[in-house]
Amino acid sequence: MPRIGEAAPAFEAITTQGHIHFPGDYAGNWVILFSHPADFTPVCTSEFMAFATLESKFLAANTKLVGLSVDGLYSHIAWLRTIKEKIDYKGMKNVEVKFPLIEDITMEVATKYGMMMPGESNTKAVRAVFVIDPKGIIRTIIYYPLSLGRNFDELYRVVIALQTADAFSIATPADWQPGDDVIVPTAGSCGVAKERMESTDPDTTCHDWFFCTKKLDKETVLNKIIQK
Ligand code: BEZ
């Protein structure tokens, strides 16, 4: 089962957008590889409509989306066509899913990525999310059960927070959003910690020796991360 900090397992697959080599085809991009339990099911339909509607926002953050279920290609094609032609849900209609959806009838990829959880279902993948960085390293893994639709604003927050952590060498506190204070990495030695506690930098606040935050304004974050 893949773990955070490890290379994303490689595979080749047929998708609704053609053949892909993963993660090689995505080198240089962030990518969210996610599974859903089954085509033509309601929670999955709501998720695909939400994700497709937000796709341009993810692309602007250099992040591509790749879906997967253990259904076949023709089922995927028919389902995505039905979504586009028939479903009007929460103000979303004529929604075209442009990102690739992998067919995995052999469950090979789902098994490789630990998306099959027999306690939940023997025949369907759970709702897994793998956030993979431009070097092909898994940076975040999130799992949801069959009955629970994902929060796509949260997945966007995860991508922005990871990219911000990399770009500014900081960490992000609970519920962080761009514009909120960020966490200065823990000092390596007592001397450095003491120096930082006594810092007169008006942008840094130390709550204790192990917990210092600093300002990082929203524009600075978004200018670095969002492509215009
Ligand atoms: C759904 O997407 O609605 C769903 C899929 C599989 C099991 C239960 C619900």
3D structure, described in words:
- This protein has helices at about 40-60, 75-85, 110, 150-170, 190-195, 220-225, and strands at about 10-15, 20, 30-35, 65-70, 100-105, 125-130, 140-145, 180-185, 205-210, 210-215.
- The longest helix is centred in the first third of the chain and has 19 residues, at about 40-60.
- The model has no long low-confidence stretch (mean pLDDT about 95).
- A five-stranded mixed beta sheet has the order 5-4-3-6-7, covered by helices on one side. The chain has a three-stranded antiparallel beta sheet with strand order 8-10-9, with no helix packed on it. A two-stranded antiparallel ribbon has the order 1-2.
- With about 230 residues, it is α+β, with helices and mostly antiparallel strands.
- The protein is about 30% helix and about 20% strand.
- The radius of gyration is 20 Å and the shape is elongated.
- It binds benzoic acid (BEZ).
